[in-house]
Design goal:
This protein is an alpha/beta fold. It is globular and about 55 Å long. The two termini are 34 Å apart. It has helices spanning 12-23, 56-65, 80-85, 87-107, 141-160, 189-197, 225-238, 257-268, 292-298, 307-319, and strands spanning 3-7, 27-32, 47-50, 70-73, 112-118, 163-169, 171-173, 204-207, 219-220, 222-224, 244-249, 255-256, 274-277, 286-287. It has two domains: 3-173 and 222-249, 3-Layer(aba) Sandwich (Rossmann fold), CATH 3.40.50.720; 189-220 and 252-291 and 303-314, UDP-galactose 4-epimerase, domain 1. Helices cover 39% and strands 18% of the residues. Bound molecules: nicotinamide-adenine-dinucleotide (NAD). Residues 7-8, 10-14, 31-37, 52-53, 74-78, 93, 97, 116, 118, 169, 171-172, 183 line the site of nicotinamide-adenine-dinucleotide. This is UDP-glucose 4-epimerase. One of its GO terms (molecular function) is UDP-glucose 4-epimerase activity.
Length: 320
């Protein structure tokens, strides 16, 4: 039986990974400091350890007590705005602690990592859809902290034979039976719209209506968390023969903010209170992934390609 260490397994996306690994019969150890995660997100059959991924002593203990096949690192701080105000917190958590994790793995002979990176490493892309080869020029400390860790992983692969898969998620969304999006200080569009629909916030602000897009609002690529995790499961197998991998994960089609709002209104049957505001600095007009590489190499095939399917899954979790 394979055993994996899922760091950040009490979070939104990591929790689904734990759920799916256990469903397929693998054993899972979860390490999470619960800073932004929720203990109840962790599948009851997983071993849960509360702690920091940069805690070398704790990592040595975990690796000596459990024979870990793959480390899946979902543990990150994810708020772009906060990262601008508190870069130290982001570089420490997302980069420095990550390097410390790589050293713990190396000391203990654990040589496979799957890392959750982000479309934010691309900054303002010159062209869409964005391929893996596109220039990486992040424009905020969040994106930089993720990109620096990507670079560290690649250097460790060259020097110490680390095997890796880097996934760059676009906009993660949707829900499963166990897990729904409930970030602390939520900043993601779909849960914010739901809050507005449920009267938990006065309205949803749409930043910018004068972009060069069909309806003037920003276009993003929304990808369901179950689809993200199916790519991780495929990668565990793929890494038996291919050791240095990077994939962008999105549906390859974008939806504008207005289109997402319209889809929520259609599915919930409720009017969304909207206010229109100026553009936010640093918001690119279009972020759309090319996921051709993941499809070709991993045989990845998203089950939720349409925004309506994603919103239906997220809304039914709200109603549970
Ligand atoms: N949600 C998205 O749309 C999105 C998009 C692109 C990339 N990502 C990446 O995916 C990963 C998971 O995102 P999420 O939406 O599930 O966020 P989340 O906040 O729900 O989950 C992150 C989890 O990691 C834990 N954690 C953070 N730092 C830690 C540390 N140093 N040690 C131990 N535990 C730690 C948190 O407590 C939390 O449980 C992140 O790394 C994020 O950068 C997310």
């Amino acid at each position: 039986m394979m055993k994996h260490l899922v760091i950040g397994g009490a979070g939104y996306i990591g929790g689904v990974c734990v759920e799916k690994l256990i469903e397929r019969g693998d054993a899972v150890v979860v390490l999470d400091h619960l800073g932004t995660g929720h203990r109840e997100n962790v599948h009851p059959n997983a071993i849960f350890i509360q702690g920091e991924k940069g805690d070398s002593k704790l990592l040595d203990k975990i690796f000596s007590e459990h024979k870990i096949d793959t480390v899946l690192d979902f543990a990150g701080l994810i708020q772009v705005g906060e990262s601008v105000k508190k870069p130290s917190k982001y570089f420490q958590n997302n980069f420095c602690q990550g390097v410390s994790l790589l050293d713990s793995m190396r000391r203990n002979g654990v040589d496979k990592i799957i890392f959750s990176s982000t479309a934010a490493v691309f900054g303002n892309p010159k062209t869409v859809p964005i391929t893996e080869e596109a220039d990486k020029s992040p424009i905020n400390p969040y994106g930089e902290s993720k990109y620096f860790f990507e670079l560290a992983i690649k250097r460790y692969a060259e020097a110490y034979d680390l095997k890796y898969t880097i996934f760059r998620y676009f906009n993660a969304c949707g829900a499963t039976i166990m897990s729904k999006e409930q970030h602390i200080n939520e900043s993601h569009l779909i849960p914010l719209i739901f809050q507005a629909v449920k009267g938990e916030r006065a309205n949803i602000a749409v930043f910018g209506t004068d972009y060069e897009t069909t309806d003037g609002t920003c276009i993003r690529d929304y990808v369901h968390i179950e689809d993200l995790i199916s790519a991780h499961l495929a990668a565990i197998k793929y890494m038996e023969k291919s050791f240095r991998n990077e994939f962008n994960l999105g549906n390859g089609s974008g939806y504008s903010v207005k289109e997402v709002i319209n889809a929520v209104e259609k599915i919930t049957g409720k009017k969304v209170p909207v206010v229109f505001a100026d553009r936010r600095e640093g918001d690119p007009a279009r972020l759309i992934a090319s996921s051709e590489k993941a499809k070709k190499e991993l045989g990845w095939s998203p089950k939720y390609p349409k925004i309506e399917q994603i919103i239906e899954s997220a809304w039914s979790a709200e109603l549970r």
